[in-house]
Amino acid sequence: MAIYLDSNATTRVHPLAVEAMLPYFGDRCHNPSSGYGAAKAVKQAIQTAREQVASLIGAKPSEIVFTGCGTESNNMAIKSLAREIGRQRGKVVVSEIEHSAVLRPVEAMAAVGFEVEKVGVDAEGRLDLERFRAALDPARPGFVSVMWANNETGVVQPMTEVCEAAKAAGWHIHTDAIQAVGKVPVRVDEVRVDFLSISGHKFHAPKGVGALYIREGTPFEPMVRGGGQEAGRRSGTENVPYLVALGRAAALMEEAERDGTLARVARLRDRLESALGELLDQVEFNGSREYRTPNVAHVSFGGCAAAELLPALDAAGLQCSAGSACMTGKGRPSHVQKAMGYSDERAFSSLRLSLSIFTSEEEIDEAVEVIADVVERVRGGR
Prior knowledge:
single chain; about 375 residues; alpha/beta; Aspartate Aminotransferase, domain 1; Aspartate Aminotransferase, domain 2; 2 domains; seven-stranded mixed sheet; three-stranded antiparallel sheet; 12 helices; globular
């Protein structure tokens, strides 16, 4: 069986989440909007899932809106905020390292008259707070969108400071927390974002389900109108099995934060990095060593190209990514690493090795051997 180190691309669905969702494909298949008792029980299952997701991030259940994916959540928040601030005077500030699910919508806003400013990061991948604060303009309506944790490097951003600066300017704030939720503590009762995006398949729920946190009292314009589901904020018959699985996965990840499971993942990541650093020369570890998610090792292997390493690793039984899975095959250096000031050579030689709660010590030790062997073979073939 292949060693899977691409959990930032997607995770294995937790068996307990699968178990929770299965009845809703069969005997509990009812439309939750129907009026009879069995349908009301299904509606209650959705509410339970809402409570579980809310608990994971310190929110009220009423502040959770279920969506189809993280990209939809990002677009819902950004397009609602765009209407709120208006294109004539409105300004948007984002980081240069955002996922395309944020960059593309704000670039579309720029095309129709909004001012959009992108703020850079330092060599560790952390937001330049001085430039960020300077970009805010209290005299204008605006909003900011800064990701909680980067999808390529795993670097966690200074969200408390970001929120304080945005609120001082009177601006709204959205965060793409898709790679943070379920991996590091994300608490909206402590960090006062207005919108927060979640994607279930990043923390052991199925693909095709996500959520958007909307702080109580925050203006919101629905992107999808219809039957009034999700309190009118996102219409459409609910995907009940997947919502139940999302809730179960959220509860499992909240438990993983408490019981030391995530700390074990961090130790495995450190074991991986330490062994690679000892076995190979020309190895560079990218991004902050202090502020990062526990599951990501982002590594550059000098003298290699990731485009050569990936198929060789795959053939040897190890699955990983070069940067973001969404950018695989695009033929250009990662915008994240370029924003960090890295050379094209370093960016093109980078691999993202991302673990999950299912990664074992034995897999890590075997992965080290496979990577070292493949890197040496690729280098020797030049």
